[in-house]
Specification:
about 230 residues; alpha+beta; outer membrane lipoprotein receptor (LolB), chain A; ten-stranded antiparallel beta sheet; two-stranded antiparallel ribbon; globular
């Protein structure tokens, strides 16, 4: 009995040690990702936005995207739609990781575009947070988030995928794809649209049972040159 107890305590000790090592590893990865994101204090970017939602007929459009630490983010279209994430919706990684108020859990590995990535789940410590779980898929060679899946209290789940090329050293994507299911998504709480174009038409009969995708292709960034707070009002 004594030997059994000693063996049990031994394996419990090993298990606890492995858990501690895993926790240290994921926190180190997240810190390196955060450090890379923090290189960007602000930016103004130009790009093209394609909105693919069955109930909303909108042509592809040129957009300007603004960001300023810690969590100011806005997308403006020359005419038509302004896109403002709200209600737990976050397509900006800087905002997702900036406060550090979460518990990180090692969730193993996965494959994205034939590349192995680390999977880390983030559990918010704030009980009032609208986001209840975020799952990050991280390229640990370059410390870039390739995909983020978030589950919210009010707006179901959504996915943000990032593709990096020219601006990878700044952890800024060349393309961003935001996907959601409108059945779980309470529009317009999660996202607001300002309609200024008469060609924009909404088919409200399709709102509740369709999928949506917002694809932004970035052409150019102006980084750390200052962005006025007035842009975000």
């Amino acid at each position: 009995m004594k030997k059994f107890l000693i063996a049990t305590l031994y394996f419990v000790g090993i298990f606890s040690g492995l858990q501690s090592l895993h926790a240290q590893e994921v926190n180190t990865i997240l810190e390196k990702v955060r450090s890379k994101l923090n290189l960007v204090k602000d930016y103004q970017a130009t790009g093209t936005m394609k909105l693919d939602v069955s109930f909303l007929k909108v042509p592809d459009s040129k957009v300007t995207i603004f960001y300023k630490q810690p969590d100011k983010f806005r997308i403006k279209q020359e005419k038509g739609i302004s896109l403002v994430p709200k209600g737990g919706i976050n397509i900006n990684l800087n905002s997702m990781l900036s406060n550090g108020k979460y518990t990180a859990v090692d969730a193993g590995t996965s494959i994205i575009a034939r590349q192995q990535v680390k999977v880390i789940k983030l559990l918010p410590l704030d009980e009032e947070s609208d986001v209840v779980l975020s799952t990050l898929y991280i390229d640990t060679n370059n410390f870039l988030v390739k995909k983020a899946i978030s589950t919210t209290k009010e707006n179901g789940s959504y996915v943000v995928e990032f593709t990096y090329q020219k601006y990878r050293d700044w952890a800024l994507p060349d393309e961003l794809v935001f996907s959601f299911n409108t059945k779980d998504y309470k529009l317009p709480k999660g996202m607001t649209f300002d309609y200024e174009d008469d060609d924009t038409k909404i088919d409200t009969t399709k709102v509740k049972n369709s999928k949506g995708e917002v694809r932004i292709t970035f052409q150019n960034y102006v980084i750390n040159k200052g962005v006025s707070d007035g842009v975000f009002k």
